[in-house]
C-alpha cells in the first residue's frame, strides 16, 4: 500500500502491517533502488508475538509494472508501481507550462508493458483561447494513435465527473509533472481523501513536492489510485534505440515497409516512418521528440549506460 524506502505497509484482509525486507530480491539483471513496489502482491511473515509488524518473504509474479530511471542514481532503475490496470498522466499548459517532450517520455514507460494511459490536462480554467486551441491540436495527435485525452479543472470541477467514470473499477497509477495540481485533482475526485495540496514556488515557478512516497488509496466508485511523487525529469539509460522505436506505437505500425529490419528512422534510405511524417500521417512533434530521446541514448556510450561505479 505504501513504500517509504525502509518500511512497506502491507494490507492483509483489511488489516495493514508495517513490514521490512530480509534478504535480497532481484528482477532479472536490473539494478533497482526499490525491490518492492506499491501494488505488488507479497507473502509476509508476522515477526512478533503481538503480530504488529512483519517481514516480506516473497514477491508474487507481477502482471505488469512501470519502471523509470532513478533520478538520483542514474545507473539504477526505480519501480513506480506494479499490477495496474491503467495510468493517468496529469499535465497542464499553464502554471507550470508543459515541458516539450514530457508526454512522450512518460508514454515510453507505460507503452513498454502495454499499459493504457489517460492524458489529463488540468487547470483548463486558466487557459487562454490560444491554450485551448493548442489543447485541441494535442488531443488530435494522441487520440489518433489511441490514447484518451481529457481537459479538467480541479478548481472548478469541470469534467471531474467524466474523469471519475474513466477511473471507476480500476487500479490507476497517477503521475504528473511537478506543480500540476495532482493532489488537488485527487481531492476533487474524492473529497474524503483530504490530501495536502502544494503551490507553485514564486521564485522558480515550479511545483513543490506534496507526495513524498508512492501510496495506494481507495476512493469511492471502486477506484484504486497509486499516487506517486511529482516528476521533473525522465531519462532512459535502460533502453536501446530499438526499444524506443518499438514503443512509439504508430512508428511500429508504419515500420513494416522500411527497407532495413533494424531501421532507426533517422537517416536510413527507404524509411517508411519518415515518409509517413512527410505525408502527415505521423505527427512531426512526436517524431522530433523521438529523435531527441534516441539522440540522448546515442550520446551515452555503452559502458556508461551499463556500468555503475
What descriptive keywords fit this protein?
six-stranded mixed β-sheet, Ribonucleotide Reductase Protein R1, domain 1, Rossmann fold, alpha/beta, 9 helices
CATH topology term of the largest domain: Rossmann fold
Q: Quick one: how many beta strands?
A: 13
N→C terminal distance: 32 Å
Structure classification: alpha/beta
Main β-sheet description: 6 strands, mixed
Under CATH, the homologous superfamily of the largest domain reads P-loop containing nucleotide triphosphate hydrolases
- Any idea of the CATH class of the largest domain? Alpha Beta
How are the strands ordered across the major sheet? 10-9-8-11-13-12
Q: What percent of the residues sit in helical stretches (DSSP H or I)?
A: 25-40%
Domain unit count: 3
What general outline do the C-alpha atoms trace?
Answer: globular
Mean pLDDT over all positions: 88
Integer-rounded radius of gyration: 21 Å
At CATH's second level, what is the architecture of the largest domain?
A: 3-Layer(aba) Sandwich
Total number of helices: 9
Low confidence ranges: 200-210
